[in-house]
DNA sequence: CAGGATCCCTAAGGATACTG
DNA sequence: CAGTATCCTTAGGGATCCTG
């Protein structure tokens, strides 16, 4: 990737918290938060399952689940089982589902660049093949890393 | 996204650090680390630029730059300017560049789901349009969030 | 300019126990 | 099952100063 635009005053905006990546990291940038989101994408919905599967303390889970809910990534939804009292479960909102490319991107990167278990896969329900993430422009071209430029846009005010 | 496979013993593998996402988060899962990687993708190479543009303390920058270097995401490369003594700069390795889908994915998600400045863009050098990330299977199908299944693969040993 | 060394300090997270 | 409450510990990071 290369910079075709100098971005001289980048220092101003990048360090004052206006970068979208910075905001995103503020929400899902911690290990517990991201792993909870991973679990949510795996289909986990109940508190105790989050706790045991992610391997964090209940208090930590409660804190982050609440934060993710307030941030609009998860939603508490009551459900009712036969004869049991109503409970809440945490399900992905559209914004939470929209994080899937990041989750899968991290997963795919981890598989490629760290050693370890690759006994779990994300696959396409339709054809059964493994999924990955591709960078693509709005015109539909596949974009290689060194075909990406960073640029400042004129503010539309 | 849905689970077509029960993944009953998921609890065993997911909490013991063998998940690729967990490993990836161990490397780039902290705010400073990810922001340093962001800066690297923006084209930043020098220590002081990292410090000022990310807005972190030099010690923090040094720590994480070293960790990222040891993890193989960055590489120290000596460079020489006229009349000045040689210095090192941090450049992305292939593994670091390979993280670009995640960086762009976070960026795009942040633009969509957080309010704030969208005065910076990632664009395709070839055609000039904005880039985004797409989930796709190896057969080339675009994959929607609820077309993704998680499954256990039989270990190939 | 590119860090290393120190000090300090707070917030995050684990462990454990308890409650509706 | 779904949390809350408490305690405790540590690593992370800011600030400051120093060095090749």
How would you summarize the topology of this molecule?
Two copies of one chain form a homodimer.
Chain A: H1 10-14, H2 20-28, H3 31-42, H4 47-54, H5 58-70, E1 74-79, E2 87-92, H6 94-97, H7 100-113, E3 120-124, E4 131-137, E5 148-152
Antiparallel strand pairs in A: 1-2
The first copy, chain A, binds a DNA duplex (20 and 20 nucleotides) through helix 4 and helix 5.
Mean pLDDT of chain A: 85
How is the largest sheet of chain A built, in terms of strand order? 1-2
Number of strands of chain A: 5
Give the termini separation of chain A: 29 Å
Provide the CATH top-level class of chain A.
Answer: Mainly Alpha
Of all chain pairs, the largest interface belongs to: A-B, 93 and 93 residues
Beta-strand share of residues of chain A: 15-25%
CATH architecture of chain A: Orthogonal Bundle
Q: Report Rg of chain A.
A: 19 Å
Helix % of chain A is 40-55%
Tell me the domain tally of chain A. 1
Low-confidence stretches of chain A: 2-13
* The named CATH superfamily of chain A: Winged helix-like DNA-binding domain superfamily/Winged helix DNA-binding domain
- Could you say which overall geometry of chain A the principal axes of the C-alpha atoms support? globular
Structural class of chain A: alpha+beta
The biggest sheet of chain A amounts to:
2 strands, antiparallel
Oligomer designation: homodimer
Q: What is the string of helix and strand elements of chain A? A: HHHHHEEHHEEE
Please, how many helices of chain A?
A: 7
Classify the fold: give the CATH topology of chain A: Arc Repressor Mutant, subunit A
